[in-house]
Structure formats: C-alpha cells, structure tokens
Amino acid sequence: MTQDATVQEKITEESRSVYAHARDGLMSMAEEAKVAQRLLATSSGALRAQLLESIAIAIEADRRAILAANQIDLDGASDLTAAQRDRLTLDEARIGSMVASVREISRQRDVVGEVVEGWVLANGLRVRRVRVPLGVVGVIYENRPNVTSDASALALYSGNAILLRGSSQALHSNQAIVASLKRALVKVGLPTSLVGLATETSRDGAIAFMRLGEAMDVLIPRGGPELIATVRSQATVPTIIDGDGNCHVYVDEGADLSMAVAIIENAKVQRPGVCNAIETLLIHASIAEPLLRLLEKALPAVEFRGDERTRQTCQRAVAVTEDDYAREFLDLILAVRVVDSLDEAIDHIRQYSSGHSEAIITESFGHAQRFEREVDAASVLVNASTRFVDGGQLGMGAEIGISTQKLHARGPMGIAQLTTTKILIEGEGQIRC
Amino acid sequence: MTQDATVQEKITEESRSVYAHARDGLMSMAEEAKVAQRLLATSSGALRAQLLESIAIAIEADRRAILAANQIDLDGASDLTAAQRDRLTLDEARIGSMVASVREISRQRDVVGEVVEGWVLANGLRVRRVRVPLGVVGVIYENRPNVTSDASALALYSGNAILLRGSSQALHSNQAIVASLKRALVKVGLPTSLVGLATETSRDGAIAFMRLGEAMDVLIPRGGPELIATVRSQATVPTIIDGDGNCHVYVDEGADLSMAVAIIENAKVQRPGVCNAIETLLIHASIAEPLLRLLEKALPAVEFRGDERTRQTCQRAVAVTEDDYAREFLDLILAVRVVDSLDEAIDHIRQYSSGHSEAIITESFGHAQRFEREVDAASVLVNASTRFVDGGQLGMGAEIGISTQKLHARGPMGIAQLTTTKILIEGEGQIRC
Fold first, then answer.
1. B-chain residues within 8 Å CB-CB of A383?
2. Which of A250, A383, B81, B126 is the most exposed place for a label (fewest CB within 10 A)?
3. Is the confidence at residue A315, as pLDDT, over 80?
C-alpha cells in the first residue's frame, strides 16, 4: 500500500464527500485546462497580448459587478483583522491598478520561443534550448482579489493555463473577476477553460488542489507559514515556495553612517508590511553608538528591540528575544543586535534568515565580496535598500511571487519563471556511433 | 493536525523504530553535510578539481577492496534477474570507467560563480544573477554501484554535499566506494561529511530519506516506476524526476527512407535497454509498405508488434496492444503503427509519450517546425537518432540523470543543473522612492 493511499484514506475518513467531490471537480478542471493550454502554447505573442488587452477591457467594463461581489464578501467576513479586511477590499482605484498591471504585463517582451542557448556539435547536429510554457499553473492564495487577475495575466501571457484557489472570504470577488477573464478569453476566440477557479474553499478542498499530481505542472502557494507547511507536507505537484522575508541589514565597521540611516529608514519604514522590508539590524560594535543615536532621531515611529549593548545607547529599546530574531514583524518594529565582526553578522543571518534578501552597508571591498559569497539568500545587496528586491524594481517585469526556494526559480518570479525549456536537435540523418 | 503528522503516525505504527531511527540518523547526516557544504560553496574550482583527482586516485588504489565488497553483494543477492545481476556487478574494467568518469567531470569548466545574466538599472544599481551550488543533493538509486562515484563527483564538483541511498543489494559495494570518497576528501583537507551514505536500506528508510524536508535541497530519484510513484506521493524534499523513456520516431510522408532505416536501426538496436532508445515507430501510410520491407531486412533481431495495416505488409509482426504503446520495452521489441497524417502521429505521441525524446524524419520544413512546436517533450529531434539525447553526446558534460519533469531541469542534468542562482545587487546608497 502506498502512503498516498494512507493519506487519502485518512482524509476520506474525516470528510469523504468533500475531498472526493473537490478532487473530481479539480481533476476535470485541470484536464480541460491542459487540453486548452495546447492551443495557447503554440499561439502567437500577438494573440496573447491581445488577450491581455481584452482582459483589461473586460475588468474595466465589469467593475461594478466586481465591486458588488466584493461587497458581499466584505459583508460576510466578520472575524477579519483590519489588515485582512484591507487586503480583501476592492475600490475603483484598486480595480484601476489591476487593469494597469494587466496592461503592463502585455507590454513585456514575449518569452515563449526564446532561444536560451544553442550550439552546433562536431557531427553537424544543431542544438537549441528554447523556452516553452510550463503548462498548467496552480496558484493558492489568501485574501487579495487582485492576485486573481495579476497571476492570470502572467500565466496566460507566458502561454500557460491557470487554476486559482483563493480564500473562502474572497470567493465572490474572485468569481466576478474570473467571469471577466472568461469573457475576455471568448472575445479573442480562446477556450474559457484556460482559467479555472476552485470553489470548494475548505481545507480538504485545498489539499485536493495540492494533490493533483501530474495534472498540474507547478503550484505556487502565496500565503502564511501554515499554508506553506501544509503545501510542503501534502503537495504531490511540484511547488515554488513564495516564502517569508526575514531580512537583515548589517552595517559594517567604517560604513558611511548617513548612507546607513537612509537605507535602514527606507528598508524598514517605507512599507513595513511587505516581504522585502527588514526585520533585524546588525551593527558592528565600533559604530553602534553614533549609528543608534542617528537612528533614534530618524525613525521616531519605530519600536526598537535590542540586545544589551543596543540598550546601553538606545534607551528607547526594549529587550529583544530569541523569538524576535526569528520573526517577520511586518510592522514598525526593528530587532537590533550589536556584533563584533562580519563573521558574527554572517552567522546571525545564517541562523535566522529566511533566504529572501540580505544587505550589507560597507566601504570595504573585501567585506562586500565575502558577504556576497557567504550569505545564502535569493538576493544579496551591497549599499542598497532591500526594498529593491521586486521584479518591477529590478527591471524583471511584474512578478507572481518571490521564491525563497532554490529549485527552478529563486528571487522574483516573472513570466520567464513560468516557462520551462525544450531541447531541439536538428540534423540530416546523424546516428550515434 | 497536519497530514504530515498523520503520515508519520501511520509509519510509526507499522515500524516505529526503523523509521524513527532512520530519520534521526539521516537528519544528523544531512545537518553535518549542510555545515560542511558551506566550506565547499566558497572553495575554488581548483580545489574541487583536485578533490576529483584525489577521488580518482583513491578508487584506483582501493579497487581490490571495492571488488571484494562487490563480491559479497553478488554472493548475497540470490533472486536477481540476469540484467539486475549485470547492473550490480563490478570488474576491473568497470572500475576503470568509474575512474575515467570522475576525471572527465573534473575537466569540465567550473559553473560555480558563473554570471548567468547581468544589467545596470537606471538608478545605477548593478544587478547580476550568479550560479551557486544547490546545497545538499540527495540521490536515491537502485543497483548500479557506479552511480555512487558518478553522482558524488558531479555534486562535489558543483559545490554540493551529497547524500546517497542505494539499494540493499549494493550496500557493501557502496560502502566501499564511499570509503574511498571519504579518504579522498581527507587528502585534500575537506570534511568527510560532504558525502553521506544511508545504510538503512528498508522501505521505511527510503521514505525517511525522502521526507527530510528543508534539510535536503533536492532529491534525484533514479529508478523504476514504483520508486518514482513513492517519491511523488511521499517526498517533502523538492525533487527532479529522472523518468521513463517511452520514445517515438515518426517517419513522415516523403521522408528519405534510407535515412529513416538508419535512424530507426540506431535508435532501436544500438542499445535497447536505455531510456533514449525508441519503443514505438509511427509511419505515414503513404510510405508504410516500402519502409516496412526495408526494416524487415535491416532489423532481423527485432520483434515487431504492429497494428493491422503494419501486419498487412510485415508478416513477421504480431498484433500490438494498447499496453505495448504505453510500455518502455527496454528490449529488442518495436511497436509499429501506421498513421494517416502528422496530426495523428502527434496525437499518438501526446497520448503515450513519457516526455523524454521524440523524433520526426521528414523532408518538409513545415512539418519539422510543427513537430518541434507541438510535441511536448524534453528533447525533440528532426532527422537525428534519439540516442543523441545524452549529456555527453550533446556536449553538455556528464549527467546525473535525464529529467522528464518541467521544473528546474528538463533533459540531461549535468553540473549546471546541480546549481541554483543568487541575485547580487550593488549600489552606493540607493533607496527606493
């Protein structure tokens, strides 16, 4: 007996009909998506750009219906925090941003068919590695309804079908947006099954979504640690994890203090609730006192949680805990630690980093090189704010997430990361000796 | 309660001590490997080449001990088929090949640190994507003891630690080879924990190996369908599947028949037991008769299994079944089907292909283009033998496997596929507006 059978047995014991029903529905949705995707895979970039323009027009035209659906979701969602409610809420401006994002994606250079590398062998065979769509992309996400249109535009533009599984709180909003997407598909003569929305929003439904096996080519979960843990232990689909951002700035001995203050302020305060904001500041002991005095003035709204040496200078700081170092505050809170060397800073980062983005502020060429080489993170920055780690900011185009895993995609994931490659080998009758 | 807990609960009920013991042992092995790997990640290419030379010397020096250990394995393995016994057997010549492979890998250009792409942003930030090792690579495989040295050389040369889990039948051979690898590591001053061999070779041990979570960065299973299915349903480590090769050749209307015969003969007969050999031949109806007459003469040792139209011409052919089309014979058997169009050939391939390698023989530019575009496989060939789909043959260096999945690596996996990338961003104080 396979363990897979064990898992399913357990699930069906608990909730036989929900899981089985969700699985059957999702399986047919995925199969239809795969058939439809073949058409898109060989379509022209012009048609895919036209599809995105058609989506932009449809969302604009349907904005009242989308807002009305969103109101139903907001009315039905009683136990949300203010931040969660904010993420769920749509308004004219936010719909405008959704439309603008779709149009922006359609202006990116097409990646389908791109020749990644190519060479000719001694026997005359011509070899090329070319980009092709992944196939059926699954996205499992939480409250933000704009993910529905953003992720769909990225997936479709790169030639993929997409299966969406949002939260139960956002179901009406997502259904309304998906209705617009399907109208747009019809407009350009493409099958509506290129976009599928999972409407069974229970936990069993989520697990069925993750366990579609080969019917889904990749699953991108966007959500909190609990979702990620479930995906890690349950998914039978290959996944790309969009993980936490427990990011650090280390200010080295001899660093330019005004540069340090500007970068720390930008990386902590500009938008504290995002993954590329910093959570912990590491300071070399030799400059701790002057830097902390400057930071106290520059960051009046930030709560400092410091180690003993930090608190000697920074009266405002409360005592930091082990747990603070390990957390992503997503708030105006900054953990601070004074270290005696670059090695100590790198060790701290190694212990607590989530592998998202790590920065050093230094004037030392050697220390910059060592930090770049020894810190194991998707992005490593020297004398720049971690807030730049974003597909748009880095000139890589809109992103479907920021991968903190090592396989397939690491860092911002845009349309190129929604493709795989195929090797084309052309000859005139060559055989192997 | 997570499903992970459910799985473990089930396992521990069945075999608490085996699973728990294996898991604890593997977890410490993986943790030690990760610590040691940090050293290798920042080592010079020269040191890694020196390590491989040291491995070659150690295996050569220890060949008697390795052969003696192999003899113990052979004596202990009673219920093996001839082919399985052959795969398990080592002799002087095979040890010579193992040594030669290690040396060949050490002559490849180093990939660690390679700048994959790079650009400068309008704000002056300099962005580079550079190759870095994946970290801890796991390989789970069956009888061939040469995989132990091949996979280790590829992983170590690309800066990774490696955890190996071979079959119980090959345990003594693998232990002897790993002892040589560890002696070589000591010789060049590197920690022996860079190579780990799992000695708990039960099924529970295998499952514990697959469920190491974040302690292992990638798992490459090399084995039959049962192993792959277990990995798909059990693994919590990201995997790269080295899948089956159910490969096809389609001979198009108007194809050069002598070219077709040469390629079919090469792709079927040269080495029928490997994944890049063909299993099914598709022939356009217009040339079926002359081609089959030529093939009957050219392939005297091959058993033909044909559809009705094939059997009209080819008296020797037995009736083909649905199951034959779906199988990888790995033998001198060829399924044959006569089709009426390129579309029918592509449909057949879509239905039965394992996504490894697919070839067309054609004189039509348009048909070649369509076949390349519409066939969804890791490698697509025009007028060339599928036997070229091999890292060495394609000039991509020695391979750790041939991926039939779409994520991270597709097609032959060499040292470049054992790396990930890291984005380096350098500035002089830039902050985000």
1. 426-430
2. B81
3. yes
